[in-house]
Amino acid sequence: MDCIFCKIISGSIPSHKVYENDSVFAFLDIYPCSEGHTIVMPKKHIGLFTEMTEKDASDLFASVNIISKAVSRAFNLDGMNIGMNVGEVAGQSVPHVHVHIIPRKRGDNGGSMHSIVETNPGNENLADIADRIKELL
Ligand code: AMP
Ligand code: ZN
Question: N or C: which end of the chain has fewer CB within 10 A?
């Protein structure tokens, strides 16, 4: 498998590992957005979050929860952004599912999730929008 994150899991590419269990591997981002920027990923190679099973996604986010608490305490954080770039259009550069834990401190001049994209779709048809999603659940 020619996947850089699979190689990190197997150890053929070195990383600063912070956590590992049967299904998840976490390590420091090599180009941190802030001190302690951590990546959490499933050991199984899956390209997109939307291709994961509920069980695999649950396991992944259970580990994100555990690790985020440690990162918060390690750096005495004021907060953090936790998120994923899903798909190339959203900025996913490595096609192996991963969650970013990005530490935040007051005064760091960072933005919120709302600064990622704003296409100004309006809010007049939110009931229809909710229906479109509900029909597929
Ligand atoms: P994304 O853009 O969401 O796909 O995130 C990929 C992340 O992986 C980026 O933040 C990179 O800095 C990080 N990254 C890429 N290669 C490595 C590596 N060898 N070790 C650690 N982090 C890496
Ligand atoms: Zn992979």
Answer: C
